[in-house]
Amino acid sequence: MAENTPNKEKNFFNKLHDKYRLVLMNDDTFEEKVSFRLTRFNVFIFFGTLVIFLVFATTYLIAFTPLREYIPGYADFNTRKVLRELNLKADSLQAELRSKDLYINNIRNIVEGRDFDEEIFEPSDSQDFVEIAELTRSREDSILRAQIESEIRYVGVSPDDPDSFEPQPMSQFFFFPPLNGIITSHFNAAQRHFGIDIVADEGEPIKATLDGTVIFSTWTLATGYSIGIQHANNLISVYKHNSNLLKEEGSFVKAGEVIAIIGESGTLSTGTHLHFELWFNGNPINPLDYIVF
């Protein structure tokens, strides 16, 4: 009895090589259709290889195909890049829109005779900024400033007297008189009268003083029907208290072209006349210094 025990209990590794036959037979005729010779070792090799293949195939599909985007929480770097670019574009558009709004508001302030709006930048609390008082000018910076100031042809406001206003001749401009008439009110920056008043007959046409593009053509309670033209070299001409406007915003006009009809619209008007203003580099200038009426 003890002698048969070693024969019955074979080693496990020896059993792996025991051969078996897998037969597929017809259930009705018992005819043998297909047969396979198998060992336990071959079966383990086959299923182990299949499992490894499935693991690698699944990993490849998840890591290197678009299917990974459907996995919740998976980080898509391309999407992050696109979102970052869209965020930068949105910030740029917001800044540009804010600049345009400020420009339009200042144009409206010119028409209505109010002060300019200045854009105020409010820095984030998380950012650190160096105070301007801590910075010192270099010698090269001082030389450059002196050179630029000596080449400026137009002086807006004197540093010693902020209320002073001394424009220099602008020989590059050849102005066309917007209206022939009698000047009843002159330019007076101290009294905030930034233009001249010209009285003429009712129905007289008003002409553009230079070539340019109409930047506003509107009606306000104070100045009535008003129109403004943007010319070259940062020069703007404004025509107020008209009875009719003949040009729309965005229209290009030539010097001497009729743009409006004289009137007395607006609460600030005391009779039929034209209030004419010239603005150079954001500062009002006296039209009589450059135009012969």
Short description:
The termini are far apart.
Description of the structure:
The chain is α+β, with helices and mostly antiparallel strands and 293 residues long. Among the domains are: 7-64, no CATH class; 182-289, Glucose Permease (Domain IIA) (Distorted Sandwich). Helices cover 28% and strands 25% of the residues. The chain is built from 5 helices and 12 strands. A hairpin with a 6-residue loop joins strand 1 and strand 2. Mean pLDDT is 78; it is low at 120-127, 129-134, 152-162 and 164-169.
Question: Any chance you could write out the topology, listing elements then pairs?
Answer:
Blueprint: H1 5-8, H2 12-15, E1 19-25, E2 32-39, H3 40-64, H4 77-112, H5 139-151, E3 182-185, E4 195-199, E5 205-207, E6 212-220, E7 224-231, E8 235-245, E9 252-253, E10 258-262, E11 274-280, E12 283-285
